[in-house]
Amino acid sequence: KATVSVLYWCDMKVVACSNAFKECLSADEACQAMRNGVLMCSEELEVVVCPLADGGDSSLEVLAGGGRGELVEVNNVEDPLGRPITAAYGLIHEGKTAVIEMARCSGLALLTAAEKDPTKTTTAGVGDLILDALSRGTTTVILCIGGSATNDMGTGMADRLGLAFYDSSGEPITRPAGADLSRVARVSDDNADPRLKGTKFLVACDVTNPLTGHTGATYTYGRQKGATDAMLAQLEEGMINMAKVVDCDVEFKGAGAAGGLGAGCVAFLGAEIRTGFDVCAEAAGLHSALQGADLVITGEGQIDEQTVSGKVVSGVAVLCASLPAPPHVAVVAGSVANAQLIRASCTPLARASLFSLCNGPMPLEAAMHQATAASLIAEAACNITNVFKSARSLPVGPRP
Q1: What is the mean pLDDT of residues 55-83?
Q2: Whole-structure pTM value
Q3: Above 50 in pLDDT, residue 1?
Q4: Fewest CB within 10 angstroms: 225, 293, 313, 329, which?
Q5: Which of 360, 296, 301 is nearest to 25 (CA)?
Q6: For residue 127, what are the contacts with CB-CB under 8 A and spacing of at least 6?
Q7: pLDDT score at 394
Q8: Residues of 229-253 as b/e, b for ≥16 C-beta within 10 angstroms?
Q9: Is 156 or 363 the better-scoring residue by pLDDT?
Q10: Phi and psi of 214, rounded to 5°?
Q11: Does residue 305 register a pLDDT over 80?
Q12: 295 has which bridge partners?
């Protein structure tokens, strides 16, 4: 008589690890909705919540919000045009790691349409926040570099940190901006803040653009930052010049992120550039949370071709597939586009279950209402858990 084993569902471990649903729910709120849905299925289940981000908007809230760290507000930080503002960053790991979201001080959202001009904007505010973090004894700085208003290759940041820029006549270039890059002939770190050498810098980057060329920082993102055709040519010339001055590799992935800030962080800070998901997942403790998991529920606002390019959903699927006992991954999203292409582009996602949240015809505005979205996510999580629970309770092995 064949032996039949039965897997019981009551000892299941479920991990809810979602990205934010943009303009709708934060990552914390989405994960909580997933948890609520799982517990609707059974309150006996173990549910671990681990909000995630990919290095773009909301990374600060994910890594340092919700009691996971401390938010620090800094006054007189320069905005992209040099005006004083109050900007926040986070401290985690008992204050030893700072999380700086560059959009908080040098972001496009801080400017009106009329103010957008990447020849004038700078990353000086990023330098201001780094200096404050160093003054508090941090030894690691995570820079999340999405949503920038700048195209200065991080020279504004470097200037605030004590590096100096000179033209071909030896004259200093003070407060360098995008328009000044073509004039730079030499960079000196003689008076750079000495604390930089003892600090580890990690750049969380959610794009893979090189520094220059038609897929580089200027030609890919310059127009949305306010650049005209003439400005694009000027800014590209400046990027090419700066790369030569600092002997920077222009082709590595992420060099062109945030108007060349990716390349600048490598050149001026010796930073390590990693995918935003990898940095955020490590800081959030995702690998530890996944240990022993049976079911993982993740999600974001839309599943499309960009999902496989370092976004949270694909990152979770890839990480789960690498575990000795891979849990099943279920993905929920406001919409799922080109599912076949997505599955073909990412083998771990080919093994995942993809679910669109809307359970009937409804206007987009209604679906994106906070309470409605949370309810739809909870309902989906409950259904996913019920199906998985039922499958787990089935006999395993040959029929007797």
Answers
A1: 89
A2: 0.81
A3: no
A4: 293
A5: 301
A6: 156, 157, 158, 159, 160, 161
A7: 55
A8: eebbebbbebbbbbbebbebebeeb
A9: 156
A10: -70, -20
A11: no
A12: 14, 328
| Residue 368 tokens, joined | 């994106």
Give the up-direction half-sphere exposure of residue 254: CA atoms within 13 A in the CB hemisphere. 24
DSSP label of 321: H
Residue 370 sits at the vertex; the CA angle it makes with 339 and 289, to the nearest 5 degrees, is 65
Instruction: Answer whether 315's CB lies under 8 Å from 360's CB.
Output: no
The alpha carbon dihedral of 343, 62, 109, 147 has a sign of negative
Measured in degrees and rounded to the nearest 5, phi and psi for residue 329 equal -110, 125
Measured CA distances, 274 to 112, 204, 376 (Å): 31, 6, 33
Q: Find the helix or strand (DSSP H, E) in which 200 lies.
A: strand 200-205
Could you tell me what percent of the chain has a pLDDT over 70? 94
- For residue 392, is pLDDT > 90? no
Tokens 């890919």 belong to residue: 220
Is pLDDT at 395 greater than 60 in this prediction? Answer: no
Residue-wise DSSP of 131-196: HHHHHTT-SEEEEE--SB---STTHHHHHHTT-EEE-TTS-B--S--GGGGGG--EEE-TTS-GGG
The DSSP code sequence of 344-388 is HH-HHHHTSEEEE---S---HHHHTSHHHHHHHHHHHHHHHHHHH
Give the whole-angstrom CA distance, residue 385 versus residue 32: 15
Residue-level pLDDT at 393:
64
Q: Which residues pair with 87 in a beta bridge?
A: 74
Q: What confidence category does residue 4 fall into, taking pLDDT thresholds of 50, 70 and 90?
A: very low
Strands laid side by side in the 295-303 sheet = 46-49, 13-16, 295-303, 328-336, 353-356
| DSSP bridge pairs for 107 | 148
Q: CA nearest 330: which of 393, 396, 388, 391? A: 388
